[in-house]
Every structure is written in structure tokens, then in C-alpha cells.
Write a structure and sequence with these properties.
Chain lengths: 465, 258, 78
């Protein structure tokens, strides 16, 4: 018997032995393993109650029923948003109050040591204030949203969502598990993109990655909610404002889902052509989640993680934006000059130059878009926290001529524009190709511009404004 | 001849998986199907002493943790949840390569007590690669609730490896799991896995191929298991062998498969 | 009745036996690995609200398959 001297020869030998029967061999190997497992299990398991009620099936009869499946899904979505929105309000306000009290003390300190105004401006009004804003705006909703999401995840409900929705994703040439990555995107798009790993096939994973930004993350929700409260909720009684605003935001989310499906379909028909790869989805038994574990894990793995990253990005960005707003060329600041230059184009989109500038400068983190806008609207030249929605309403409507159309276009652009810096960084790390990262910028941006221009001209043409 | 492949030891390979290489810090792998409560077991054993990152060169999450048992520190590596190790997905490849090439000092296979038949499939596959296996029959509380009685003694006899019933959520059975695992690591128990017997045609081919595998690669990686994978044409394993055992003498692999 | 059909057209609530998997390559490997080896008893549990995918009980786990895959598994009544 000749001994093989290389792996190659060994492989040849194996090929010779298995010959044309390779499929049969493989089948019989898998078959033998399963048969062995079957007989071992049969010898070790005895069941005392074969007639017991299968609760999982009963629950599934409702949660995946043709009648109740979709309403329950939508209802849970709205419920999660509503709890997040209303629950975050009070702690957000308290955090803001505390952090801005500290800011005042910092200012006192800078005055006491006679620090130069620019240093105080850069460090306190720029760096510190943007950090304070990000923490007070982001932390409470995340600390509420992520545990709720983890709860749904651990209970076993999320695979049912994928099961219910898979048909639509299949039609769009995408994978049913994209529903899971989208749900995660509500918390944070970067986290949603990492979650895309659950999709085995590279093509479908890429589709899920490139479209994740169409679900608004926690960094964008507060702005959407604020605008919805002012322009939609503002028209009804105060007690109903929260509920109406929640519905408006939910409507926008449904629009985002529709856009996701449309863009997925477009991608799978053009750039990412291919047949849908095999789809297997386990519907695990429902389990009672461990509340303590859920809170601990979602805080450590998600909330703190996302918040830390946002703070790392927001701190230098706050400083730079303060410089842009306070460095004057002639008698206008760089920020105002940029806004003036962008204004003609922004007007086509139903926005103004300041809004578009805020989006561009908000690239590092979506949660600083609104603060930048406020900073550039008020002459103070630093991001500021307005103490109430009424004050924000006055600033936007009375002083800067916002109409419901401006608000609508801004909300659409919040939903559809380039992903934040952290998300882009994550896409690059997951996909390793610049072209996909660039496409991740181009697709939602083009979508947002087209939608805004269409809505703007349609509303004006129909004389709605 | 051909023994050059043996020169790469398991500790050097461990470095490639980003886990401790010191001989006095044992490495334990945690394998299991998805939804078996594997991560609950992992969290219960390691608590907050965890570190997450990526498997080197892969966009697959790697979670490592440490725990201390009777004064000895162990590293626990959570493998991706898979149904099988036949390498049909990146997750399965990662899990297989770790057990096969990093050669953990013990591998705990977590199975769902309420779904034993399906889960044993993976356990049997792990047992083909390594003898250092402990079976953790998790969710035993759930099984009790469903009036399922699991005879762990029968499982031990049928499989030839230590079997521990646990309910990781309530930490039931975890001390026994650590105990058994430590004994396997320190060779105080020597598991003798009862391997799956295949149909005569397959067994005949294996008996022809196995000596040749042994001659080329030695006993470093279970030759019976490698023979089976070669027979079933698992190209991903051949690529992995190339990677971990050097490029020399394996030039013709791709040509053969071309 | 011993007519053979494919897994996707077996009615909800029925039990069937796998006869063979008519796929090649990765799809075949995946289906086999799920436990769809000849002789396996499979229960058709439910269809998704919009008809596809369909959930099956395969060796103790509930697994949903799209029509593309389930149509490749030939089954007989059990």
C-alpha cells in the first residue's frame, strides 16, 4: 500500500473511494448520525403525559394567525414606541436639568479663574453641552427600548415576526430574518448592521445592511417625536398630543418599512441580482424571560455600548461645531455661510439651508442634528436646550417660518439620509468594501432628496400650503 | 515521512483563535444548538467576566469568559449556536475549526432536554472529533414541567461521556457540570465516546482511508473523523487543514477539486 | 392512500414521512442537516399568515421553510 505524501494525494484517494457515490455517502452519514441520536434519545426519555396541552401552539395560533398576526405586530410596535416616548420624557428632563446645572457651575468656575472666552466656549458650550445633550436625549429612551427589545427577543416572539413577514421579504428578494435586523435598528442602526450576521447568505445580508438605515434609530426618534408633538400633536388637546404624535411617528415607521422593501427589491433586481438563498427559521418554544438578566445584559451590551460610542463621537463634534458657529468671516459665521450656500438647493427639498447644514454637521451622530439646528437659528452660537416644546415651536414657526410642510420634509429627511458616522464605520468593518459603504450613503440620501422634492412640489402644486 | 504536519502544536493554533495559549490555563469550548439556553449557561458560569469580539478573520461574534473552579482559572469560549458541524455555514465552520484545531481541553455540548433527539445530532458529531466531551442536558426544569423524564445514567452509558442535567436559569446542576468538566480537563475522567457506526460501505471506505490519514497527519486530529469528511467531500475542512498545517505539499488540493 | 407528494403541498395538520430530498449542493446539505433524512416523520404545523413559509415539526424543533426548499422534499402519507 503506497502512503500518501500530501493532502492532495489523500483527497484523491478519498475521491477514488467515494467515487460517484458521494451524494449517497453523505446522505447515509447524516442518516446514520440521526438514527443513532434517535435511538439514544428513545432509550433515555420517557414521557409521563403525552396528552398535555401544547401552549406554544396555542400562542402561535394567535400570534401568527392570518387575522391577528399583523394587528398584534403593529400593536406591539406602537406599544414599544409609546412606552419609550412617554417613559423617557421625565427622566430626560431631569437629566437635562441636572447636566445643565453642572454646566452653569462649570461656567462659574471658568469665570472665577478668568479663563479666556474662547476656551469656555469651546469646552463648555461646545464639548460639554453636546455631551450633556446626547446623554440626556439618548440615555432614557435607550434604557427603556433595549430592555423591551431584549424581552421580545428572549421570549421567542421575534422569530414569529420573521415568520409572518418573510413572504414580503422574499418578494423583495431579501431574507425574512431582515425583519429581525430591522427591529434591532430601531435601537441603533450600527447594532442592526451587526445583527445582519444572522443572515447566512452574503447577498441577502448585504441587502439588509444597505437598507437598515430606513428604520429610524433611537438617535432620530427624539427629533421625530418633538416635531410630531409640535406639528401634529399640537393641533389636538394636550392630553391626546402624546398619543397622536406616537401614531404619526408609527406612520413614518411604516413608510420606512415600505421604503426598505422597495429598495431591497430594487437592489435584488439590479446590483445584487440572484436567486433567494435557502431560508430556514426555527420557531423556538416560548420562554419566560429572566427579567434581571434582560435588564443587566441590555444595559451592558447595548445601552452602555451605544451610548459610549455616541459620546466619543459627540464630544469632539460639539467642539468643532462651536468653532464653526463662532468663527466669523466678515460678519457671518462659517456655519451661517454654509447654510446660505446650501439654501437654494434646500428650498427645493422643502427645507432651508440651516436644516440641511445641521444634517451634514450631524454626520457624527444623529442626535445632535436638532441641537445644531437650534444653535444656528439662535444667535447665541452654541447648542442649547430649549426648556419646552412651546419654546421650540416659537423658534421654528414664529421666528423661522416653518410650516407643516417644512416639518414633514424634515421628518422624511430624518428617515432617509446618510447613516451616522458610527453606522458607516460598522458597515465598513462588516463588509470590508468601500463601494458598499459609499452605496450605504448614496441610496438613502438619493431616496430622501427625491422624496422631499416630490412632496414639496406636490404640496405646493396642489395648493395645500 | 509526511510528519511535518505534526510540528504545529495545539497551543500555537490556539493563538490563531485568540484564546490563551498557556498550558496551565485550560480552555473549554461551549457548543450547542441555537435556543438551548447555551448563553444562559455561559452567563451563569462566567458572570460579568466576559469579553466579546470577533473570531479572527470572520464577522462572527466571539464571546469568551473566565471562571474559577477550586482555585483554577479556566477560559470558556462560547461557540456559535449550530445544528451541526458539517460546515454548511460560516458559524458551523467556526465551531468546527475551533474544536478541531484549537483542541479545547474540554468541550461542553449543551442540549435541550425537551428536544434531545435533534440535539444529540450535534453531540455525536463533536464526539467524533474529540473525546474530551461533557454533555450538559439543559432546560431540565422545562422537561420536568412537560413531564418528560430524562435518564442521564442511560445517556452516559449510551454515549460514553459524562452527562450532567442542568437548569442554568436557576443555576441547578452547574456545580456538578463544573466538577465533571474539571475532571475531564485534568484527565481524572477519561471519556470513551461510543461513536456512530455507519453503513458497511462507508465503514469499509473509512478503514481503507484511515491508515493513510494517520500516516500523513498523525493522531493529532482524529483520523477517523478526517477520513469521513474527506469521503463526504468537505472542501472547507481541506482548506482549513491547509491553513493550519502549512501550505507545503498540499499544492494539488484545488487542482483535484477543480 | 400512499401517493407521494412534496412537503409544501402536504396539508396543515398532517403527518408525512420523508421519501427523498431532490436538491443538490448546499441546499441538499442544509435540508439533510435539519434532519430531513429519508424515513423521518414530519408534522405540518402551520402556514404563515400570507401562506408561505410553512412551519414543520422536524425531529422535535419547529422549523419554517420557504416553498423553494420544501417543494424539494418528496414525502408520503404517514
Amino acid at each position: 500500500m503506497s502512503l500518501p505524501s500530501s493532502l492532495g494525494q489523500l483527497v484523491e484517494e478519498a475521491q477514488r473511494l467515494s467515487g460517484p457515490l458521494q451524494n449517497t455517502i453523505r446522505d447515509s452519514i447524516v442518516n446514520s448520525i440521526y438514527t443513532t441520536a434517535e435511538s439514544i434519545a428513545a432509550g433515555a426519555v420517557t414521557t409521563g403525559d403525552p396528552e398535555r396541552t401544547d401552549w406554544d401552539r396555542k400562542i402561535d395560533n394567535i400570534l401568527t394567525s392570518p387575522v391577528w398576526g399583523f394587528p398584534i405586530m403593529l400593536g406591539l410596535l406602537v406599544l414599544v414606541f409609546w412606552v419609550t416616548i412617554t417613559g423617557a420624557n421625565i427622566p430626560s428632563a431631569m437629566l437635562a436639568e441636572g447636566l445643565f446645572w453642572i454646566e452653569a457651575r462649570l461656567t462659574d468656575f471658568f469665570m472665577a479663574v478668568n479663563a479666556p472666552a474662547w476656551l469656555h466656549g469651546f469646552l463648555v458650550l461646545g464639548v460639554y453641552r453636546s455631551l450633556a445633550w446626547v446623554v440626556s436625549v439618548m440615555l432614557p429612551p435607550m434604557a427603556i427600548f433595549f430592555p423591551m427589545f431584549t424581552l421580545l427577543e428572549d421570549s421567542g416572539y421575534l422569530p414569529r415576526v420573521a415568520f409572518n413577514l418573510d413572504r414580503f421579504f422574499k418578494k423583495a428578494g431579501a431574507h425574512g430574518k431582515q425583519a429581525l435586523t430591522m427591529s434591532m435598528g430601531f435601537g441603533c442602526n450600527a447594532a442592526g448592521i451587526i445583527a445582519c450576521r444572522v443572515i447566512d447568505s452574503p447577498r441577502e445580508r448585504l441587502i439588509a445592511t444597505l437598507t437598515n438605515v430606513f428604520v429610524p434609530c433611537n438617535g432620530r426618534f427624539p427629533t421625530l417625536i418633538a416635531l410630531a408633538m409640535i406639528f401634529v400633536g399640537g393641533s389636538v388637546a394636550l392630553s391626546l398630543a402624546g398619543a397622536v404624535a406616537t401614531l404619526a411617528v408609527a406612520g413614518l415607521v411604516v413608510l420606512g418599512i415600505a421604503i426598505t422593501l422597495f429598495v431591497s427589491w430594487l437592489l435584488s433586481k439590479t446590483l445584487l441580482k440572484g436567486t433567494p438563498s435557502s431560508f430556514t427559521l426555527e420557531l423556538p418554544p416560548y420562554r419566560r424571560p429572566q427579567i434581571a438578566q434582560v435588564i443587566l445584559r441590555s444595559m451592558l451590551d447595548r445601552t452602555i455600548f451605544v451610548l459610549t460610542r455616541a459620546m466619543i463621537i459627540a464630544a469632539p463634534a460639539g467642539g468643532i461645531i462651536w468653532i464653526l458657529a463662532n468663527t466669523h468671516i466678515g460678519d457671518t459665521s462659517i456655519l451661517a455661510a454654509l447654510a446660505g450656500w446650501l439654501d437654494p438647493f434646500a428650498q427645493h427639498m422643502g427645507l432651508d439651508g440651516f436644516i440641511l447644514t445641521a444634517f451634514i454637521l450631524g454626520l457624527p451622530a444623529n442626535e445632535i442634528v436638532l441641537p445644531i439646528l437650534i444653535m444656528s437659528y439662535v444667535s447665541g452660537g452654541a447648542m442649547m436646550e430649549l426648556d419646552s416644546l412651546a419654546a421650540l415651536r416659537q423658534l421654528l414657526v414664529d421666528q423661522h417660518g416653518w410650516t407643516w410642510l417644512t416639518a414633514l420634509c424634515t421628518m422624511i429627511f430624518i428617515l432617509c439620509h446618510w447613516p451616522c458616522g458610527t453606522t458607516l464605520f460598522t458597515i465598513q468593518k462588516e463588509q470590508h468594501r468601500w463601494r458598499w459603504t459609499l452605496l450605504a450613503v448614496a441610496i438613502p440620501t438619493a431616496m430622501g432628496i427625491i422624496l422631499c422634492i416630490t412632496v414639496n412640489y406636490l404640496a405646493q402644486g396642489l395648493g395645500l400650503i | 515521512m509526511g510528519l511535518t504536519y505534526q510540528s504545529t502544536g495545539k497551543l500555537a493554533n490556539r493563538e490563531a483563535f485568540d484564546v490563551p495559549v498557556s498550558a496551565n490555563e485550560p480552555v473549554i469550548a461551549l457548543a450547542g444548538n441555537p435556543n438551548t439556553g447555551k448563553s444562559t449557561v455561559f452567563n451563569a458560569l462566567t458572570g460579568l467576566r466576559q469579553h466579546t469580539g470577533n473570531w479572527p478573520g470572520k464577522t462572527v461574534l466571539q464571546t469568551k469568559g473566565i471562571f474559577i473552579h477550586e482555585g483554577q482559572q479556566y477560559t470558556l469560549v462560547d461557540l456559535p449556536g449550530t445544528y451541526s458541524l458539517l460546515a454548511n455555514s460560516v458559524d458551523e465552520q467556526v465551531a468546527r475549526d475551533f474544536i478541531c484545531f484549537a483542541k479545547p481541553d474540554a468541550t461542553i455540548v449543551v442540549v435541550d432536554a425537551t428536544c434531545l433527539e435533534r440535539n444529540l445530532n450535534l453531540a455525536l458529531q463533536v464526539m467524533e472529533i474529540t473525546e474530551q466531551v461533557v454533555l450538559c442536558v439543559n432546560l431540565i426544569d422545562e422537561a420536568r414541567r412537560r413531564k418528560l423524564n430524562i435518564d442521564t445514567g442511560a445517556l452516559t452509558r449510551a454515549l460514553g461521556i459524562p452527562v450532567v442535567a442542568t437548569a442554568a436559569r436557576s443555576k441547578e446542576g452547574l456545580p456538578q457540570l463544573l466538577e465533571s468538566t474539571a475532571k475531564v480537563v485534568w484527565k481524572k475522567i477519561k471519556p470513551r465516546p461510543n461513536l456512530v457506526q455507519y453503513i458497511p460501505e462507508v465503514e469499509a471506505a473509512v478503514s481503507l482511508l484511515e491508515p493513510k490519514v494517520k500516516a500523513l497527519l498523525g493522531n493529532d486530529i482524529n483520523p477517523r473523523w478526517i477520513s469521513l469528511r474527506l469521503l463526504d467531500g468537505d472542501i472547507t475542512l481541506i482548506k482549513a487543514l491547509e491553513k493550519f498545517y502549512g501550505q507545503q505539499k498540499v499544492k494539488s488540493v484545488r487542482e483535484v477539486f477543480a | 392512500m400512499y401517493g407521494s407528494t412534496t412537503l409544501n403541498s402536504a396539508p396543515v395538520g398532517s403527518f408525512v414521512l420523508v421519501k427523498e430530498v431532490n436538491a443538490e449542493g448546499l441546499t441538499r446539505r442544509r435540508l439533510l442537516d435539519l434532519g430531513l433524512v429519508p424515513g423521518t416523520r414530519v408534522e405540518v404545523i402551520r402556514r404563515s399568515p400570507v401562506g408561505d413559509p410553512i412551519a414543520f415539526n422536524i425531529r422535535g424543533a419547529v422549523i419554517a421553510l420557504r416553498q423553494e426548499e420544501s417543494s424539494k422534499v418528496t414525502v408520503i402519507d404517514s
